[in-house]
Amino acid sequence: VQMDNGSPFYGVSVSDELWGSTVATTTSDSDGDFSQTPLYLGVHSLTYSKSGYFDTNMEGLLETDGQTLIVDSVRLLPDNCTSGTMSGKITNAVTGDNMSGVSLSYTIGLNKWSGFSYFGDTDTSGAWSLSVNQGWYTIKSVKSGYYYGYHNAFACGNQTKQNNSLRKNLNEGEMSIVLRWPKTNPVTAIDLDAHLSIPDNDSTGTFHLWNGAQSGKDYYIYGANDNVTLDRDTTSAPGTETITITQVRSGTYSYSVHDYTNKSNSSSTKLAQSGASVNVYHNNTTTTYNVPNSAGTLWRVFTFTTSGGLSTT
Questions:
Q1: Tell me, what's the pLDDT at 148?
Q2: How far is CA 57 from CA 111, 121, 127, 231, 274, in A?
């Protein structure tokens, strides 16, 4: 749990409901962390409460035995916030092009999957806006031929650049990895880089792909493409980086996120405060990872093998 400026928030009450009944209550510690175990499977509704701040609701799904769910970090809004207009753009996760005609719906709370109300389509520049009461909302984006998109947005007065991107549906055997991080305060200028180690077709070694800067050169890719493309790279929030694997094969894929902006400060908490998330699209399944609340500039997100599937690292 974080304050509106991104600082860890101590003493926030967290209530957990399952099927309409409270199953646990806990409080955030000095790092803003909380945890609860064991819990039954199902959709858990979390309510965050603190005097002087608006209550905030979030949903999280526990769907397998033994699962550890790291929910998205929550920033509580002070109770002097006023209503306003949320706005942003929907873009293509691969090309970065603005997407018109995207159907948009909203619901109150974070990371919701139901209870949406339609409010309009994106215009020719991919833009959307919605005037609402102060608070956090989940925005659902739908376009034929694309995976559904969900992103969190908030109103505390007018709030711009609350963007999302949609990934076109994949063919069987393909994989796409999309890193997103929102505009936040005070970490708006952070540059996150996606890194992927892939098996080499012609040897037992691996290739390492990422976008990097070099004096006098534009951004470029290190390593061989080898059935993998780094499609999109951005250097500030709100940001999107997309990698596509056109042919998943045997061997180990390892994916990480690096805070390039603060690379020289290993104790930095800017990555933890970035609100970054990673969506992995593969065989009609979407898996989401949220950045952990810990200091450091490297987030080792997951590994993947065709025999073992996805696993955290």
A1: 97
A2: 9, 26, 26, 34, 20
